[in-house]
Each structure stands twice: as structure tokens, then as C-alpha cells.
Amino acid sequence: MSESFDxxxxxxxxxxxxxxxxxxxxxxxxxxxxxxxxxxxxVLETIxxxxxxxLREELGDLFLQVLFHAQIGAEAGTFxxxxxxxxxxxxxxxxxxxxxxxxxxxxDSLSPDQVYSNWEQIKRDERAKAxxxxxxxxGVPKTLPALLRAFQVQARASRVGFDWPHTREGTxxxxxxxxxxxxxxxxxxxxxxxxxxxxxxxxxxxxxxxxVNLARFVKVNPEEALRGSTNRFVARFQLMEAAAARAGxxxxxxxxxxxxxxxxxxxxxxxxxxTDAEASR
Length: 281
Known about the structure:
Elements lengths: L1 H15 L5 H5 L6 H17 L2 H25 L4 H14 L2 H4 L11 H18 L16 H14 L8 H23 L5 H22 L4 H26 L8 H25 L1
């Protein structure tokens, strides 16, 4: 593995050398940001597709971004790939004392929730030692997808007690809050006021935030849930397009009732395919 890693580091250095690739030489930390995000999402898509061979390829593409940034850092004299790896290794050891340090309570006696709680406490201690301002919401990147960021912010606030109890009654309180936000959104849409667009956007955001809160209570990742729903919509819509093409009629020539029939047919086809796939496992 060391030989393969060293080869990749050398290849990246060659691409960035004066006689290397003009495009690679031009890149900066900032210019590479879109590619890092894109590669991360391609990994997520491949995981959803459950394709190990494709996942291997996409993980390589994601790792390339790490090497790219490390090479730029080495050229600027700010950090090297070795320092990146050493800092990561030190962090893993430091934040897993139940595995790497002798403790009264061995790691295999801890629950995953206890391990996660300890991890967060160690992070807080690290920030305090570094003199960083402490906040329960510290460490949630603003660049996260909005649903995921809302989920993480709410989870952090919950850890300091700012939350309804995670009981049936608490879940009902969240559902009531969603109904309240829907009502306020209806009012915003119906109102005839000058700043109507801003108010609608605000109320729409509040509704999303409340729905994310419900996701926490029912233990659903809202980002994954919405991605799954979107993927199902795409699959059904493409089946509709295929059916319309076989009938020799474009979708935009059909009535809403006809489109509904195609949609329901697509749902049945996919549901049947899913049932067959489960049965074959």
C-alpha cells in the first residue's frame, strides 16, 4: 500500500510541476471546492446504487481531491500530505481513549451513544484548550446542505436540553408545530402585502425546519429521505416518458388525467420490481 500511495503523491506532484498539466497547475484551494463537493456526492450516489466496483472508483476520485489540496499546501509551505495523515492519526487516537488508552471502562462495554458523547466532549475540551469560543452549535459547517445543517444544529441544541422530550408526547408537540407552520405559510401566501415574497420564503423555511425536527424524533436523516424521494420521482417520471414514447405522444400533449394514469402505472412497475428484488435476496 505504501508503494501505491507514494506513486500517487509523485503523480500529483508531476501534474503540478512546471512541465506538468496546465489545468492542474492553475488550480487553487478555492477553485477546487466545486470538484470536492461533486466527488463527495458521486460517492453517495454510488453507495445508494450498491455497486462496490463503482464505489471503489469514486472513492479514488474523492481521494484525489485530498492529494490535490495537500500538494498545493506543500508548494505553499503550509502543510504536506504527511502532516495531514499524522494529524488525522493523532486525532483518531486522542478521540478514542476507550480503544487506545487504558481506562477503567473498556471500549467494548460502551454503547455507541456513550462513545459519541465522549467524542463530542473531547472535541469541546480541545477547543477550550485552543482558546476557541465555545458554543453548543460550534463545528456545524455553514456549507452543509441546508437540510443536513438544520438537522445537525437541532441535534447540538438538543444536547444542552433545548428540545422537547423524545416521547410520544414530544413527537405530538413537533407535529403540532408543523401544523402551525403550515397555517402560517397559508396565511403568508394569501396575504396581499408588499413584502409577500420575503414572508413566504421565511415561512417556507420555518416549515422545513420543523419537518427536520420531526425527522430527528422519528430517527430519519432528512437529507437521505429527500434524496430517496427525489430518486423515486426520477425513476417514475422516466418510466412515464418511456410509456409516452411507446404511445407516440409527448407528455406535454397529455391531459392531467392521462399523466396520472402513467404515473400510477410507473409506481406499480417500480413497486413490483422492488418486491422481486427483495424476494431474490
